[in-house]
Amino acid sequence: MNYFGRFSRFLCAGAILALAVNLAVAAPQAGRATVVQVNGNVSIGSQPATVGQEVSQGAIIKTGPASDVLINLGANGGYTRVLEDSTVTVDELTVDSSGPETIANTQLGLKQGKLESQVNRLSSKSKYVVQTPTTTAAIRGTVFRVYANGAVLVWDGCVDVIVRDQVTNREARYAVCAGQMFDPNIPGVVPIPSSATSPNFVVGPSAAPPIPIGPQVFVSPVDGPPSEPIIVEPELGSKAK
Question: Does the predicted model carry a pTM greater than 0.90?
Answer without folding.
Answer: no
